[in-house]
Design brief:
The structure holds three protein chains of three kinds. By secondary structure, chain A is mainly alpha-helical. Chain A is built from three helices and two strands. Chain A has a two-stranded antiparallel ribbon with strand order 1-2. In chain A, a hairpin with a 2-residue loop joins strand 1 and strand 2. The longest helix of chain A has 18 residues. In chain B, the strands form four sheets. Chain B has an eight-stranded mixed β-sheet with strand order 5-6-9-1-10-11-12-13. A three-stranded antiparallel β-sheet of chain B has the order 4-3-14, with no helix packed on it. In chain B, strand 12 and strand 13 form a beta hairpin. Chain B is elongated, with a radius of gyration of 29 Å. In chain B, 41% of the residues lie in helices and 18% in strands. Chain B folds into three domains: 284 residues, no CATH class; 114 residues, no CATH class; 62 residues, Orthogonal Bundle (Arc Repressor Mutant, subunit A). Chain B is built from 15 helices and 15 strands. The relative contact order of chain B is 0.09. By secondary structure, chain C is an alpha/beta fold. Chain C has 16 helices and eleven strands. Chain C has an eight-stranded mixed β-sheet. In chain C, helix 7 packs antiparallel against helix 16. The longest helix of chain C has 24 residues. Chains in contact: A-B, A-C, B-C. Strand 2 of chain A pairs antiparallel with strand 8 of chain B, so a sheet runs across the interface.
Chain lengths: 95, 479, 486
């Protein structure tokens, strides 16, 4: 399954990455190398094999419904790239 | 040939847990921005989610309330998309294995018929934060207090065929989630938010292209938005156009809707099982405990109201439909000793007043016990119904219990016949011409003219005269 | 002092041979003198280290020491440390002062450890050579023209050169074991879920695991004792009892069954690499171990499965770096799209971007089944292979890496060949098993390592095997010429 610069552009958009036109071909070719290696997966016989999302067959421990977290706004806003009036700032969002 | 309307709903129900779905932050209403957003809610690097037991319990309880299959090993997945109010760049939600599987809800239609709306599934997920557009000089402010709030998203099959059915379903769902105590049900706070999927077709045709109108937060807006969209689709199709699958935004103030083009941007959410979370197990013992703890459901309550209080079908529906109303009604009945009077007051005076002041019954300034006392005084003849309204207003204004108000304002009905007789005698003596006029009238006219004397007596007694007693006395004395 | 193992230093502190302050100053001086060349640290926390050392000296004097009291340790810069820059080797987090501390760091500090600083690493732990770090490549102390391996390359190099007596690392596909092999140190990746991931910046959440890197198995046992345990903040950390790892070192290995997976000695493998590992196995045989041949037929698919699963999880884990709440943000964003795209493209390096793209692609509509789902199915086949092997054997052994340290830049333009550096280590991560790498000799003056893989939660046993081997041999005590003048 080879991918070209058009697919790279679509995927890059989904991942919110900028791909310069100049690098696009080189990037496509690198990605194709990786995908060619990954394509070995198609050799495997996976009939009736359940996908394994986790290394261990265990279930989720649940947390008691208690308020335990302090207000850390000042700490959080201090390391924020842009903040004002207690909020993080982004360019205007148009819905 | 007319159009057939097909409606499906997706409802976000906010669970009323103490803390968030994946963190120990307090659930926020009205807190200063970002003061209830923990490391996890902010999506700080290296942080991890831990599932709130109570949220899972409440979701499963809902499943049992709608006779759904409960998934014994439900799985959280990540829905990946970028948005500033989504701090991790993905929403943790459920897809293939939601906690609640297929179920059903029965609704009553206006013509008295019943209809079953099938529930496709309901899943647990986290809410996003809020984007604030005011006061940031052209920028947008991000408040993540709401991020991580536990929701269940209830997805129906497209089983409703007009706005009224959709509203009936929405109200019923509201009754269920408030009755089982998993949601506060305060629509004004966004506790329940509706997305409606609407399509139209000619009878017998396959399903038409649907649109989704998002985030409707009142029954009224939902009804109006559906009607508006149905009209729009009919106009488009009858003009030879075609419906575009899109997300629409309804504005309740202007009663208009528009397409949300920004959301159409070819979303590919890349769902996959969240590797930070393990399957959530619900055991037989968990289910048994939930069943044992299941509160009374609206349908059961309605039957009980019909049987215990001899209410009309209509009254029973209204009073059992909302948990807070039902609880209020029963407490007022208990305190006042008269279900019919309690029903009339709750649905009449109280409802009107709450409505006018945009208050919920849970926050009613007049308590159920106070209303009960008022009803008791009406029943035992201490006050007339006219005075009762005056007492109710005073209670509403915070002047105390009905008994206190009646006492303080001297509103007790005058039932001492000697005292009233003296007042009547005085009125007859002081109004010679009117007395003469009355006595020379025929019976039909007398009935009208007696009003003058009643009025005079009420004026003198400041409305406290017992009306029956007064009428009786006047008839006797005037002849 | 720097030629002593962590365990020996612990004894020295207890005997009053030196103070923690002296010890800490000694290592800080070595870092100052040698790290300019090695580049193994991103941040050195001198003032904090000295304060912790003084507190440790007081604790020792009061007889209140913990497991690690007064012992200097370097933390990989993937662990959040409150008030200290936590960069993850990325420009994205170059200015990120963590607002909280990782459980691993906190647990070690509560046992009295002194933090020397934060070690260099491949950006977001994505790499096997430490060349993807925003802070420049780390050099291998055995040959400064060669890579130290990765992604815990800084940890392994500073430890190999004895600029720190011990270090923490993380291992997603071999990131503790492969650099351990390339720098002649011992490194352990515990069972998935044995050590908390809270505060460890995620690469691939279902594979990531923190572990100790030390001069010996004994050192690793000491550190793991402090690191392991359930954490209520990490749902995937298991609520299993923590074994007595130091106690387990003393166990007899007579009668131990070692399985040799034939797939770990393919015909294409460098003969000298194979010889060193076979020699190590022979040594254990002399100590009473039994050796049998086993097969892990699906392990050949571990690299392709890994390069779907790890990038897929990473593509999602790294979405939070969006320039909004922390980390790099581009100048003057024109709109939201611009903010996202420029912040992320400026903040991430090439390898990180490649993996995000591969992961995004593997999860996207139409490819999920062919890539992601299939990789997860293959993952189960691999785990089942290991499970079958462990029905017959106690541990599995083979070379840690297929080659010794390669020259800086040698694989820069060939990501796939770089990925093959982890061919023997990745399967263990997919299965979630514990494994360690121990030094087992040299080829042309460059270290090689042998991997010991154990069954779930059998860290004690693999540490025991390595310790017995290290009692019988002295490969692990060999030092590079670099940094030897003090």
């Amino acid at each position: 399954m080879a991918i070209d610069s058009k697919v790279v552009a679509q995927v890059a958009h989904l991942a919110r990455l900028k791909v310069d036109q100049a690098d696009s071909d080189a990037l496509s070719s690198r990605l194709n190398d990786i995908l060619a290696m990954v394509d070995q997966l198609q050799q495997a016989d996976v009939t009736d094999v359940a996908p394994m999302a986790h290394p261990l067959d265990v279930t989720q421990p649940l947390r008691d419904d208690k308020v335990s977290e302090p207000d850390i706004r000042d700490k959080a806003l201090e390391i924020a790239p842009a903040a004002e009036d207690g909020c993080f700032l982004v360019p205007r969002v148009i819905e | 040939m007319s159009w057939e309307v097909v409606i499906g709903l997706e409802i976000h129900v906010q669970l009323n847990t103490a803390s968030k779905l994946f963190s120990g932050s307090k659930l926020s209403t009205g807190a200063e921005p970002n003061t209830q957003a923990s490391l996890v809610d902010l999506g700080m690097p290296g942080t991890l989610p831990v599932v709130n037991r109570e949220a899972v319990r409440k979701a499963a309880l809902f499943g049992l309330a709608i006779n759904a299959d409960i998934c014994r090993h439900s799985v959280f997945e990540r829905k990946n998309y970028f948005y500033p109010d989504l701090p991790k760049g993905y929403q943790t939600t459920q897809l293939d294995k939601p906690v609640v599987g297929a179920g059903e809800v029965e609704i009553s239609l206006e013509n008295g018929a019943k209809k079953t709306v099938r529930i496709h599934h309901a899943h647990l997920e986290e809410d996003a934060g809020k984007s604030l557009h005011e006061d940031f000089h052209g920028m947008t402010g991000i408040d993540l207090n709401r991020a991580g709030t536990p929701l269940i998203e209830v997805v129906t099959e497209p089983d409703m065929s007009n706005a009224e059915e959709a509203v009936a379903f929405a109200r019923k769902l509201h009754a269920i989630v408030t009755s089982i105590g998993i949601c506060d049900g305060d629509m004004s706070q966004g506790n329940m938010r509706f997305d409606v999927n609407v399509s139209i077709r000619k009878p017998g045709d396959p399903l038409g292209t649907r649109t989704e109108t998002k985030n409707l937060n009142s029954f009224r807006f939902m009804e109006r938005a559906i009607k508006l969209e149905v009209e729009r689709q009919i106009d488009v199709l009858e003009d030879g156009g075609s419906i575009v699958q899109e997300t629409r935004l309804y504005n309740g103030d202007t009663h208009t809707a528009r397409s949300m083009r920004s959301k159409e941007d070819a979303n590919d959410y890349r769902y996959f099982p969240c590797p930070d979370l393990l399957p959530v197990e619900i055991t037989d013992a968990d289910l048994d405990a939930l069943k044992a703890a299941m509160p009374e459901l609206p349908d059961t309550r309605k039957s009980r109201f019909l049987a215990d209080y001899q209410l009309s079908e209509y009254d029973a529906d209204l009073l059992s439909g909302d948990l807070a109303t039902a609880v209020f009604f029963e407490a007022a009945t208990k305190a006042g000793g008269d279900a019919k009077l309690a029903a009339n007051w709750v649905m009449g005076e109280l409802a009107a007043k709450l409505n006018a002041e945009e208050k919920s019954i849970a926050n009613s300034p007049v308590t159920a016990e106070q209303l009960g006392q008022l009803i008791a005084r009406l029943k035992d003849g201490t006050i007339s119904s006219k005075i009762a309204k005056q007492v109710f207003e005073a209670c509403w204004a915070g002047e105390g219990d009905p008994d206190t108000v009646i006492e303080a304002k001297g509103l007790k009905q005058m039932s001492d016949s000697g005292e009233l007789e003296k007042i009547v005698d005085d009125i007859i003596a002081n109004n010679g011409p009117q007395v003469e006029d009355y006595r020379s009238s025929d019976d039909a006219k007398k009935k009208k003219k007696i009003g003058f004397f009643v009025g005079q007596a009420m004026k003198v007694t400041q409305g406290k005269a017992n009306p029956q007693q007064l009428n009786q006395l006047l008839k006797e004395k005037l002849g | 002092m720097h030629t002593k193992t962590l365990t020996e230093l612990k004894t020295g502190l207890a005997n009053g041979d030196f103070s923690s302050r002296e010890l800490t100053e000694h290592f800080l001086a070595r870092i100052k003198q040698h790290d300019g060349e090695l580049n193994s640290f991103i941040t050195v926390t001198e003032a904090q280290a000295l304060a912790q050392a003084d507190a440790a000296d007081q604790a020792i004097a009061a007889g209140q020491g913990g497991l690690l009291t007064g012992l200097p340790i370097a933390h990989k810069d993937i662990f959040c440390t409150e008030g200290v820059r936590t960069s993850c080797g990325s420009k994205m987090l170059d200015t990120f002062i963590a607002p909280y501390t990782a459980t691993v760091v906190e647990k070690m500090a509560s046992e009295g450890a002194v933090m020397l600083g934060k070690t260099n690493m491949d950006e977001f732990a994505m790499g096997s050579s430490n060349e993807t770090s925003y802070y420049g490549p780390v050099k291998n102390p055995w040959d400064l023209e060669r890579v130290p391996g990765g992604s815990s390359g800084g940890a392994a190099a500073c430890l190999g050169a004895r600029l720190a007596p011990a270090a923490t690392g993380t291992d997603t596909g071999g990131s503790i074991r492969q650099p351990a092999a390339l720098n002649n140190i011992t490194g352990l990746k515990p069972t998935y879920g044995r050590v908390s991931r809270w505060g460890m910046i995620a690469f691939a959440s279902s594979l990531d695991q923190a572990g100790p890197m030390g001069q010996s198995a004994e050192d690793c046992a000491l550190m793991l004792q402090a690191m392991a345990g359930h954490d209520h903040r990490d749902s995937t950390s298991l609520n299993e009892k923590v074994d007595d790892y130091l106690g387990a070192l003393k166990d007899d290995i007579n009668g131990l069954t070692i399985g040799i997976p034939e797939e770990f000695f393919p015909d294409t493998l460098d003969g000298a690499i194979a010889d060193n590992s076979r020699e190590a196995i022979r040594e254990l045989k002399k100590l009473g171990a039994r050796v049998v041949s086993v097969s892990l037929p699906s392990i050949k698919l571990s690299v392709p499965a890994y390069y779907v699963i790890a990038p897929a999880e990473a593509s999602s884990n790294l979405s939070r770096f969006d320039g909004v709440r922390f980390g790099h943000r581009c100048d003057d964003p024109q709109d939201l799209e611009d903010l996202y795209k420029r912040s992320r493209s400026e903040g991430f390096g090439d390898e990180v971007k490649r993996r995000i793209l591969v992961g995004t692609y593997a999860l996207s509509a139409g490819y999920y089944d062919a890539y992601y789902r299939r990789a997860q199915q293959v993952r189960r086949l691999i785990r089942d292979d290991f499970a079958r092997a462990f029905e017959k054997v106690d541990v599995l052994m083979g070379p840690t890496a297929p080659e010794t340290a390669f020259k800086l830049g040698a694989k820069k333009d060939d990501p796939v060949s770089m990925y093959m550096a982890d061919v023997f280590t990745i399967g263990v991560n997919l299965a979630g098993l514990p494994a360690l790498s121990m030094p087992t000799g040299f080829i042309n003056g460059l270290p090689t390592g042998t991997q010991v893989i154990g069954n779930y939660f059998r860290e004690g046993q693999i540490l025991n095997v390595a310790h017995k081997y290290q009692q019988a041999t002295d490969w692990h005590r060999q030092l590079p010429a670099f940094g030897g003048e003090q």
